[in-house]
Amino acid sequence: MEKIEPGKRIEGDIKTGDECSLILRRHQGRGPPVLLVHGASAGSDTFRVGETQCLVSYLLSLGMDVWTLDWRASKNVAPKIYCDCAQSGRQKHPAGVFTIDAAADEDVPRALRHIESVVPGASVGIVAHCLGGGIVAQGIARGRIGPPLVKNVVLSTLGLFYRAAFDNVLKSADDPLDDLLYGKGMQFLHPDRVWDETFCRTGTPGKKGKWDPLLEVPYEVWWNTPLRHRCNNEFCWRLSYLFGMPYDPANIPTIHDSELPNQFGYIPVEFLLHCTRNLVRGHAGSLNARASDTTLLDPVPFRDLNVTLITGELNSLWHRESIDMMYEWLQRKPALGKGSRAKHVLRGFGHQDLQWGVTAPRDVFPLIAKGLARG
Amino acid sequence: MPAETSDHSHAAEYDAIVIGSGFGGSVASLRLVQAQKKVCLLERGRRFDPGDFPRPLQRPDNLPETSRWLWALDQGLFDVRDLHGTLAVQAAGFGGGSLIYANVHLRPPEELFHAGWPAGYSRKNLEPYYDRVANMLQVAQFPDDTLPKLVAFRTAAAQLNRGDWFFKPQLAIDFKKCVMCAECIVGCPHGAKNTLDRTYLKEAEDNGLEVRTRCEVKSIEDRGGTYFVTYTDHFAETDVTETAKSVFLCAGALNSTELLLGSKDALHIPKAARDRIGQRFFTNGDALATVFDTKTRAVPTQGPTITAALLHKCGPPPTLSDLSEAALPPKDREWFLIQDGGYPGWLEDAIGIFRGRFWLRRNVVGAGTSPKVPPAPPSLTEIDELLRAVFGVLQARGSLRVQDDRWKTGVLAAASPVPPQVRELADTVRRWLLEHERETATALGEKTAAEVVDELVSNHHGIMRCILEALAAVAAPQVAPLLPNATIRTVNETIFGPGVDPLHPLTATGVQQLLLRLVAATFFGGRPGANSFLMLAMGVDAAPGRLRLDDGLLVADWDTYGNMPISSREECLMQDLAKEMGGELRFNPQATASQQPVSVHNLGGCGMADDEQHGVTDPGGKVWGTRALYVLDGAALPGAIGANPSATIAAIAERNIRLALSDRSSPIYYRQVDSSWPDKAPTPCIDPMPRRCDDAPHTRAQPAGLSFMEIMRGSFCPNGPYSGVHVEAHLTATIHDLNRFLVDPDREVDLTGMLVRGNPGAPPVQDPVTGCLRLLRRVEDTGRLFELFKMGAELLAPKVIRAPVPTDRSRLAWLLQSIEEESHNYRMDYDLRFTGSDPARHLLGWKKIDGGPGLAAWTQTTTLSFEVLENGATLDKGTLHVHLADLLGVQLPSFKVLNTDEAARQTWAFGRFFRFFFQTLSGVYLPHFRFPNPLA
Known about the structure:
Chain A is of the alpha/beta class. Chain A is 37% helix and 14% strand. Chain A has 16 helices and 13 strands.
């Protein structure tokens, strides 16, 4: 397993318009800059670990100037953002802070502006994974991200269309997160830890423990199904119950056994709730938008972007349909300007193993690199 | 939701909107953009690259991504539609049917175009268009003559002396890329099929075609010469309207017809043509069968789906003029094809369904096959895992939704989303089970299934008893043959393993396992393996159907009986082939056992004709009365064509788009269409189908027939030469082809036997006779009809009120029903020739079946009035009667089904005959009684 040290943290971090502190790091290379955007509940660490080689080191080996962003749904910054909000008295419940809308409007654009200031005149490539892809695609749709600063975008597993296995769809439709957030005031979920408000005072994560019965009872029923991986790793089970199986364990043997708790942490319930609402309506929309609201499905902002879409054929977190739909939608005439589109559905891969898998450096990373080198 | 409508004040946005991207739509799209037109193609399905076609799940912990499979789920590849009369399977996707068709390009025989087609259609005239399509799709014959299934097929054909009718059709496959995986029908993952999205449509897109996939057209409206096409964009599930100067309807026979039926009032179509929409719908004689356990390996999982075809012809093919809605196709006009089939290895379990025990051999047809006991059902680990996963998710959901443990165990958790009444009932059942589980399991452990059922039913009352009786009625016929004399304990041990807790079936896991085992044992007959052979048949349907909207839903009125003659001939040739291959023949159970044809070649519904009285479109495909609304797909075909229809649909589209573009009155007129447009003349392509060959041999297998004896006794009239002489008729009636008999308006039955005359004490005189009986031939009683019409006219006249008219329906409906009931008159006509008589003698007899009270039914059906004619002149008359003792003692026991030794098939044939017989009589004597349909 390769696990590399974090890149140099931008001093003072970066602050968004709504005063969220995000961590931007740089692994300086001589080549063109590329910004890596992780998924929710994970952090930028995602890109610094791999069974044989991690994405950061792969891109560095190509000479790229690699930047990683811990955005607001990162396990590394989300609890702190919440605590800052709570302590500053701005909002008891940070309604609207942990949404895809806010992340799309603020986080990546803010990071891009910083990179532009450091490397003026350069075109910044973006590689965005999972919900990172969701916020980048939404940022493009809202006109916050795009040419001339950004020309090449690689969206891994998710864009504007949300498609998941039917168990996740059912769970979403049953709205347990609404009850957790608005009924019980639960702000964060963690695969194996409870949320404790004292976190903001002590800075210590909650203790290991079970979830609220609203999730714990069905989890116990689900545990008896073949959907549970036949390992002895409770973290793996709970992770895959929360999100859907996020990898093919056979592709990440070492990481599965030893690294998972380091890679996944607290996810804001509000953010997860926004995901489930997008899942129910099938496409991206504002947190409280109605299903018929298709404001974000405007293809014009994508016209001149080179978009590469990547997913795993076995992806049972975001089904490949999410990428299939995005690709097909981008082929529509209004979406097709000077930009180009490419889609890769990789056999034998699931979701997270696209970044971590044993053969990812051979099968996946070259496609990412190719996507960053278009146009 | 309201449609987002384009600005109406502007001119149409597009020159043309093409709806559908199958063979018609692809051709139209390319030619339109080549003619510099601004074209938008609306396709309801999605794009499929080679790696995008749906495949089975690969891991049990990976819930299947089902959306790409079925159109109904999420715009997936296969659209399976139950049209009530037929079951249609069609593709939805960019490239239409080409994505999943078997790549066959055949041209129907010249004679097919001789009648019923509009002026200008002939094989010769269409040849250049066929060639153009063949060039575009780069067709070629399968190059490898050693492929096992091809060898098996060819050998069987040769052994049946049919080698001259065996040929290899042209296939639109790039054989350099083909890996022989037999996955053509589920989308080629290797890009070896020359599908439309890679040929016509690619070129069209390169030339500026604007494509919108996942856009399902809902309606078309003509507003002042501009067409408004409203569709649902499934990306966002919003309704959008676009405008065009012309519309090309190419959505496939079903969808085009459905759209036209739904939009006809907004399109200024003349009434005559409007009334024709949906008529003349065909399934192209499709049939499917599998031969299991062949002597040699045919390996259907290897090669392209279809590689060869066997033509059966007897005279020229039936033409449309032979196929008036009620006519019987002539006996001397048979034309159909049998082709080899193939399927991917992962579909083998599904093919095993053909011999699943569920059908109890109802899909075995005729003699010549020897049904074998299916092997043990497969373990189906993947499905087991999948079901467990699905159950688990539903259970978990139940727990999620209802925060108590009422729903936590058993499959009843899955009932949480159902209405409260059902939930309450399920809860009652569950509570009862919990209360009685130990007691029941212990008490019933050693009883047989029948005893258990009896006890359960007799111990309960009310709704529980109803439920148990219904369950017993449904389950017993399926379960009894599998586990004869089994006790609960042995059943448990058979299903779950030795020593299982008797309560296990009542647990959630037990219920899941039980369901799976039951499904596996009932439906799956085991993988066919390499020693099997799949056959597809297609031909010219004998009786066209009709598509119509029933409360907004497309349904097909399909005459199953009317089409039996052609399907039974196809079945006979398949039986011959199966016998030569030494295997057991099983037909597609849905089509054969359930009497609902399954078609992948739906055609017609908006047929072309020379005038609006006979068709929906003109010979160029333009809908009568419209400015520029065209139908250029299979819907426009005026009849079935017998062969695989793709090439013909595309060739006719090539012809008609050319006509549309060169029509000066059309809004899409393009002046540069000449003989050299759009490119040089196509290279002629060889059609390998035998064209003017001799008739093929008759099939060895024969369709099921029926025979019975009839004894009648009576005497001659007092005044003739045989005055008062006693006479008896001992006749054997034979129906050689029951299917044909049932659709024959004359209902002809062959008769042979003996007339015996003589008085008691005198030696009898025996006259051998032969001839025919027309059994229950319908007779129109014009006198009664006239009376009824007269009464109807009075009834409908103003100021006339008649009390008996029911008030709950319209008078006209009442009148029509009266006419229908009163016009049921039938005859049974006997025409017997005395074979040893000189001079020539005939007996002409008749039974009049014209209704009446009391014993009229018995009297009329058993009394034969007859005349004996000599050289055409009446010699004597008399009356014969069927005696009750003869009916019960001789006639009924003598009924036997011919040409099959299959018990199930015999039952089926008896059922069909007696249903016909008693249903006809009930129409006369019990006009208000409706027989249940035993085939439904």
